[in-house]
């Protein structure tokens, strides 16, 4: 009976930890940087009321954070592998 209770506790702990990891992953995959800008460039003259040349555009970018984190971790892993193979950390 005691073995069954300990297995139930272990399974409950495992399920709780997996649900926490899944919720953290969903949170991290939802993070992003948003950039919005309306840029309007004009070339004006004092003699004319309307601008001589006008150029305007909208910039609406969204960058996800999770791929940036994975790329940084990959670069750090590669750098650590290169450093350990060359023994560059020793003086």
Number of helices: 2
Q: Write down the Rg.
A: 28 Å
**Helix/strand class:** alpha+beta
What string gives the helices and strands in order? HEEH
| Helical percentage | 40-55%
Beginning-to-end CA distance, first to last residue: 59 Å
Uncertain spans: none
Please state the average pLDDT score: 85
Oligomer: single chain
Largest sheet, if any? Answer: 2 strands, antiparallel
How many beta strands in the DSSP annotation? Answer: 2
- Taken from the alpha-carbon principal axes, the silhouette is elongated
- Biggest sheet strand line-up: 1-2
How much strand content do the residues show? Answer: 25-35%
How does this model look, in words?
It is elongated, with a radius of gyration of 28 Å. It has helices at 2-30, 66-86, and strands at 32-43, 53-64. The protein contains two helices and two strands. 0% of the residues are buried. With 91 residues, the chain is of the alpha+beta class. Strands 1-2 form a two-stranded antiparallel sheet.
Draw up the topology in text:
Blueprint: H1 2-30, E1 32-43, E2 53-64, H2 66-86
Antiparallel strand pairs: 1-2
Characteristics:
elongated; alpha+beta; two-stranded antiparallel sheet; 91 residues; 26% strand; 55% helix; 2 helices
Concise description?
With 91 residues, the chain is α+β, with helices and mostly antiparallel strands. 55% of the residues lie in helices and 26% in strands.
